[in-house]
Each structure stands twice: as structure tokens, then as C-alpha cells.
Amino acid sequence: MNEYSVLLVDDDPLILTSVGLNLEQEGFVVSPAEGGETAVELLGGNSYDVVITDLMMDRIDGLEVLKFVKKINPETVVIILTGYGNLNSAISALRLEADDYLLKPCDTQKLLFRTKKCLDNMEIKKKNAFLQEQIQKRNKDLEQEIDQRKKIEERLKQARAGLEEEVQQRMQELVTAKQELEKKTIVLERVNTALQVLIDKREEDKVNLEENIVLNVKKLIFPLIDKLKNDLDEERHLTVLDVLTSNLNSIISSFAAKLTSQSLNLTPAELQIANLIREGRTTKEIARLKNLSRRTVESHRDNIRKKMGLNRSKTNLRTYLLSLE
């Protein structure tokens, strides 16, 4: 058994001695107080598990001691002992929250039994109070957790509603964008069709133009050149006419078109010399036909090789020009 402290209050020294001895033999730590005044003084500076007090005492009686004990420490067990028991005094003591009420002379075993029973009740009350406190704390924690969960659920609900609204809005935007894209696709297909028609027409016109140029050169220019050849006797003039014929053939051939489409940046003079080189004319012949010095023709040849990327190559210029046909 735990060592419980007991304040024994009575104005009879013999009772203090005899009852105190019995309590000590049962393991209680007993503090005697002769009269109510001494008890109040001891209670003011000490705490006790049990107060056993006589009811009828001078100046401060047992009920006053009971009031004082319950005021400073409501958990302290208070047992009233009296040799003048009556119903009114018992009711008063119980109303003041006395834990038990016994009549003197009281059997020692009965006093010990009732004291231990009151202490057991006190321990039960303490445990119940502790459990009640834990339950209240747990209930408070649960209420806070439930409240927190409700807030989280509300936020999640709001977030879900916002997300659903955003998804619906996004879906509507995608539908609108798809419709716009389909409209633009139709417009682009129509534009592409129109452009293809224009391109085909342009290609057709280009072919027709080229055919007309070739036809006109053959019908209108070549006959006149042939006539001039028949009428002229000088070799130099005939050579010039040959060159003119060759140039005209080059114009209506694919070589000139390829040469000018290479983005080579050839000058008109370089184009003419490149054509003569392709025909197999030597530098001397080109210089005589163009009325240039051989050095000038060599310079044009070097420029043509550079513009065609052949300045660091051993590739024959005429062979390269022939590959362009």
C-alpha cells in the first residue's frame, strides 16, 4: 500500500494517541492536531491525503475544518468522527462533501476499512478525472481535426469546382480553336489550289514563251543570217556570223538558262566568253572574235573559274561548262 499522509484532529489527547498508533501500524504517516486551530495551522503549510477530524471541538469544530480542507484541496479525503451523532450533523457534513461519517467509539478495523475505502474512492476519482481530462483533450483534438478536415474538404471541393470550370472553359476554347483551324485549313486549301493553278498557268506561259522565242529566232533571224553568209565573202565576217549563230543557239538552249540561274554573278562579257569556251574556242580565237587582248581573255577565264569554285581545282573549264547542259 502507498504511504498515505493522515492529519488526525481531536481535542482529546488519548484518542489522538490510540487512533494514531493504529493508523501508523497500518502504514499511514500520521500527523496529530489537538483541536481545530492547530489543524488549520498545519493545513495552511502542508498537504494531506486524509483528514480524520472530530466533529465537536471548541472554537473551530469539525465542520469548519471540513470547509477549510475542501477549500484548499477538494481531493483530500475527510472523515468525520463524533460521539454526538445526530441526523442533522450527518447531513451537514455530507453537504459539505465529507467523504465519510463515523460515530465514536469507533472500531479500529472499521475505521481502517472505511479510510482505505475512501482512499480507493479518491484514487478512482483521480483516475476518472485524469481519464475525463484525457477524453476531453482527445475530444477537443478530434473536434479540431474534424474541423480541419472539413476545411480541407471545403478547399478541395472549391478547387475541384474551379478545376472543372477551368477544364470546361479549356475544352470550349479547344473546340473554338479547332473550328477556327478547320476554317483556316479550308481557306488555305483554296488558296493553295488557286496558287497551283497560277503556277501551272505560269509554267504553261513560260513554255509557250520559250517556244515562241525559239520559233521566232528560227523563222525570223536564222534565215537572214543564212542570207548574209551567202552574200558575204570575207572570212572575218563569216566568222562573226558563225559566232552570232552559235550565240543564238545558246540563247535558245538550256545552257544559258542554267548558267544564269546558278547565282554565279557572271558579267555579260563573262557569259559570252563562257559560251565560246564551251564551244571549244581557244583564248586566241576568243581574243580575235571579241577584239580583246589575250591577257584580258585570260583574266575573264580566271574570274569565271573563281565564280564557279574551280580556282583551286584542276577540272577543265570547258568540261565543266559542258556538264551544265
Walk me through the structure.
α8 crosses α10, α8 crosses α11 and α9 packs across α10. The protein has a five-stranded parallel beta sheet, sandwiched between helices. The protein has three domains: 102 residues, Response regulator (Rossmann fold, 3-Layer(aba) Sandwich), CATH 3.40.50; 93 residues; 92 residues, Arc Repressor Mutant, subunit A, CATH 1.10.10. It contains eleven helices and five strands; from the N terminus they run βαβαβαβαβααααααα. 71% of the residues lie in helices and 8% in strands. The mean pLDDT is 82. The chain has 325 residues and is α/β, with parallel strands linked by helices.
β-strand percent reads 5-15%
Rg from alpha-carbon coordinates: 66 Å
Structural class comes to alpha/beta
Q: CA-to-CA gap between the ends?
A: 125 Å
Strand order of the largest sheet: 2-1-3-4-5
Order of helices and strands: EHEHEHEHEHHHHHHH
Overall domain count: 3
Could you tell me the mean pLDDT?
A: 82
Characterize the overall form.
rod-shaped
- The CATH architecture of the largest domain comes to 3-Layer(aba) Sandwich
CATH superfamily of the largest domain: Response regulator
Fraction in helix? over 70%
Question: Main sheet, how many strands, which sense, barrel?
Answer: 5 strands, parallel
Task: Fill in the keyword field for this structure.
alpha/beta, 325 residues, Arc Repressor Mutant, subunit A, rod-shaped, 5 strands, Rossmann fold, 71% helix
Please render the helix and strand layout as text:
Elements: E1 5-10, H1 13-25, E2 29-34, H2 36-45, E3 50-54, H3 62-72, E4 77-82, H4 87-95, E5 100-103, H5 108-231, H6 235-251, H7 254-260, H8 268-278, H9 283-290, H10 294-307, H11 317-323
Parallel strand pairs: 1-2, 1-3, 3-4, 4-5
Helix pairs in contact: 2-3, 5-6, 8-10, 8-11, 9-10
